[in-house]
Design brief:
This protein is mainly alpha-helical. It is built from 9 helices and no strands. α5 packs antiparallel against α6. Bound molecules: ligand 1PZ.
Amino acid sequence: SRLCRGRDFQIHRVLTAFNSAVTGEREILLERYLEGWDELVKFLESLGTVIGFISQEVKGKLGLVRELRRGAPATEEEEEGGDPYRTLRSMMAHELRAGLVDFRRQSLSGCRTLLRLHRALHWLQLFLRAVGRSSAGDSMGALCSVAYNQALAPYHSWLLRQAVGVALVALPDRAEFFRIVCGVEEAEEEKGEREREGRQLLERTVLAITRVYNITQEAYQANGMLDLP
Ligand code: 1PZ
């Protein structure tokens, strides 16, 4: 039933994962980062089949990074830190050193794979911020496509942009969206209070995502990897 959609998704898990992904040294812990995405995939899956190809894409990227991580023994120089895929910076250093990063053509490096997730996180940041500021009756599809055109469309082919346009028509309306994100399913009289809590949670999540996004962006910039094919 409609009320059951998104039952498994918990936005506070997104908040916790992305908050704990950042260390005191402004490192990004990859495991926490991927866990944040796992929870976002649950959200995507609650939106139904038309959005299915998007969650498949995200799952594929997450799986690839995890596979690389499992298959990467630490080299001698790295021995100290152990897992070369522990943090974003250690992954970058490891893959550069191992010659896994191809600056000219498409490869299967963790760096180029995570860059796709990073750009999608930009989209999410813009979208959730817009949702938080929206009012009743605003079209989620419209907010979504404004954010998409800014953050992701420049990296997508014409054909893919058309497919995304079609998928966005199938997005739930604002009320349903808030129900999924904030768990607002209570009786009318409690709705106002629950929606306020939900909005606060949404705001804190946007802040956590923004922090992770900014640190990741700096790391990609510092390594000249913002345009990895
Ligand atoms: C509310 C949910 C609606 C989300 C709509 C946002 C539009 C996302 C469009 C994603 C298209 C996915 C199809 C595959 C695209 C890939 O070609 C590209 C480039 O990867 P490459 O081909 O270079 O390996 N993949 C991406 O750009 C990653 C996109 C992930 C999109 C995730 C958005 C959802 C975020 C979580 C929402 C809660």
